[in-house]
Q: What sequence folds into this?
């Protein structure tokens, strides 16, 4: 038996396929069918893995954790729907890009001490940096808000003059040459 011919179940390949008009129409009914199956008790994760065409659904099959102001997709319509959900609830289909994309979101409870769980370890690799940045921003906010920029003075300097002056001075030249 040649193991090289066997496919690794952990590896999933994706390719973009142009759909026909009938396939587009058929696919437009998927969100309601998915919602119906979820309402009947089918596991949301199973539905997501079966019907989603997003790589993120496979990479983050157990869900994603987001900060209360964070994003898992760069779309405020989707994020507002996600934030409005109660734990355990499933959203209606959230349509964006004129219906080209549909999101169905389920809010799951945060795992107890997720930061100690090995399967979530990659989500917390930069957590310390995030906390330090947030504390630094909070600490410096009164000072940065009090900064007054003198645009007239700053306008007298060019980027070329600021960055090339030390090099020109080292070469024995002046900025005006």
A:
């Amino acid at each position: 038996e040649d193991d090289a011919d066997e496919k690794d179940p952990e590896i999933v390949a994706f390719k973009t396929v142009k759909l026909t008009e009938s396939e587009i129409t058929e696919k437009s009914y998927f969100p309601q069918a998915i919602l119906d199956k979820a309402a009947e008790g089918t596991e949301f994760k199973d539905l997501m893995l079966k019907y989603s065409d997003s790589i993120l659904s496979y990479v983050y099959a157990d869900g994603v954790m987001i900060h209360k102001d964070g994003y898992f997709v760069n779309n405020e319509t989707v994020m507002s729907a996600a934030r409005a959900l109660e734990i355990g609830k499933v959203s209606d289909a959230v349509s964006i890009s004129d219906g080209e994309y549909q999101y169905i979101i389920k809010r799951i409870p945060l795992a107890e001490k997720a930061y100690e769980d090995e399967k979530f370890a990659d989500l917390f690799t930069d957590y310390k940096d995030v906390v330090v940045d947030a504390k630094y921003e909070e600490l410096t906010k009164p000072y940065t808000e009090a900064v007054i920029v003198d645009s007239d003075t700053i306008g007298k300097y060019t980027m070329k003059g600021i960055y090339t002056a030390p090099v020109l001075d080292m070469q024995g030249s002046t900025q005006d040459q």
Q: What stands out?
A: The longest strand covers residues 94-96. Residues 76 and 82 are 10 Å apart (CA to CA). Confidence is low (pLDDT under 50) at residues 1-5. DSSP finds eight helices and two strands in the chain.
